[in-house]
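Here is one chain, start to finish.
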Amino acid sequence: MIKIIIFILILCFTPITLLFGPSTMNVDAKQPTTNPITVKLTASQVGPLENDNVDLGVSNIKYLGTLLLYSPHPAFGGFSDLLISNDRKSLLAVTDMGFWMKADIKYSPSGFLRTVSEKAQLGQLCDTNGNTYSIKYNADAEGLSRAPGGGYLVSFERIHRINLFKNKNLSLAGKPTNFTAPKKIKDLPDNSGIESMLLLPNKDLLIISEGDSKSGPLSYASILKKKKWTEYMYQRSQDYRPTSAANLPANEVLILERRYKGPGTLGIRFRKFNSNEIKADQNVRPELVFELPSILPLDNYEGVDTITTEDGKTFIYIISDDNFSPLQHTLLTLFELNPDRQN
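Its structure:
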């Protein structure tokens, strides 16, 4: 019931917010006395279970479970990207309503997703003045990445920008600073900004915009090398749009892509390319890795992160944006990519 009420309120007030934009911001908005706060968090396993036989159509990728996440706090939901700690025990996620969450992850003895911590940190993102946002137009966080010199980067759309949080331990608390981004991102469509942002192993920073049909099949992209941005284009196909990026071994970049053209058209897939292929003013054409089959729980997956362990296995985590809709859910799904098992 709470989720339905929130959804109705968003439907009622979002058109007004988008119409007037930043001019509706209440500059005297009351700031939270505690930020972040601790909230209750629950998880239930959905989809195929640990002992079920799941055929993904690719022999070197293994399904390791899906958790349906829920919190009674009204700000829970809308997750657009995530990061996973190096020890795989914690996650950090940002929302398109200007919030962030940190929670712990728990596994079965065989590594299957089991649950999450019963409590999580839920915080409001602050602007460069140290104030929280009062409307979605200013707070639409879409991308999350580690930063080249330490800390974390958050990209925003509508008012396109990247903020740097000089924090540790998967936290986005406190006042950020502006991170110098390519000037061209300010010209991106309001709702098609930088959704994919990734720190490569060599400390270069990669960004890719979602793109839209009006601009054709190419999404604006750029890479930061030695404090200089080099622009290129990302080749989209079949109505899919890039929503997040993560590292794979051997300099490869994994891209999470989503397609939605109306009821019954949702598609989620992974593509990849080698970061060495990035050249100024040229197109990057990724190759397909695999598409999520209908036997798995499908939703509006927007965030991905990977952790590669010393034994060469890469664990792929994805999280969904429920849009605060009673018809959608917050899902956390895990896959294992094993290089020793060939297609």
